[in-house]
Write a structure and sequence with these properties.
The chain is mainly β. It has no helices and ten strands.
Length: 117
């Protein structure tokens, strides 16, 4: 079955950096776009970044553009999110999500990012 396992979250000071990883299994990784979404306490889910199946096309939400970078290693079935210049507003649970033909694809269990100012 599809498994997405995130890691790399933690607690950092504002201005710091983290690198999130998502290890995928149970499907043909190279067939799918991959996404990073986040949910802050009391807020809805926000799609913050996406990457095409081959890695040649990426998307970043305005809230993270210029600070977060998505990448993938198709040989390792892994997608990454580099988080730089973190702000307190970035505090959230971060999830890796697979693309889907329609609707929302499966999502991992998440990794917590906490930024203190």
């Amino acid at each position: 079955q599809v498994q997405l396992v995130e890691s790399g979250g933690g607690s950092v000071q504002a201005g710091g950096s983290l690198r999130l990883s998502c290890s995928a299994s149970g499907f043909t990784f190279t067939d799918y776009y991959m996404y990073w979404v986040r949910q802050a306490p009391g807020k809805g889910v926000e799609c913050i970044s996406a990457i095409s199946s081959g890695g040649g096309s990426t998307y970043a939400a305005d809230s993270v553009k210029g600070r977060f970078t998505i990448s993938r290693d198709n040989a390792k079935n892994t997608v990454y999110l580099q988080l730089n210049r973190l702000e307190s507003e970035d505090t959230a649970m971060y999830y890796c999500q697979r693309g889907a033909p329609s609707g929302s694809g499966p999502r991992g269990q998440g990794t917590q990012v906490t930024v203190s100012s």
